[in-house]
């Protein structure tokens, strides 16, 4: 059976929003695996994700301190339905990102990252797929707040889709 993934980062609750949009909470509960690439800001949100997600793979971001730093790793690695995935918050400058990440994460198929709040979906020359879901609460210079969904199925990552967050 294919595995439904929800990919999110840079939630920044309660600094950028009091809570996540109801539709995103629905996605969190519906997903088989939720991947969160850091910048939670508050431990209460992590607790809520752990309570509502079937399976959570999460890392800390540069805005995560105290208990969040103690509870979350800097890098998480998981295999989901044959797809080898690493999750990290920061990857550095956009210039040279594919080559730099291909060298640093040569043992995975997909690298999920955050930090920039800019949606990103590229594949390096080595075949590493790099995904940034943007932010569901702080669009910065982007037209919309966003997150990603995808499907892992027998070693392939399929149906990667960027979703706009409706705040109502």
From TrEMBL:
Its EC number is 3.1.4.-. PANTHER family: VACUOLAR SORTING PROTEIN VPS29 (PTHR11124). Transmembrane segments: none annotated. It is an enzyme of class 3 (hydrolase). Gene3D superfamilies: 3.60.21.10. Its cofactor is a divalent metal cation. Keywords: Metal-binding. Residues 5-154 form the Calcineurin-like phosphoesterase domain. This is Phosphoesterase. It comes from the Bacteria. Belongs to the metallophosphoesterase superfamily. YfcE family.
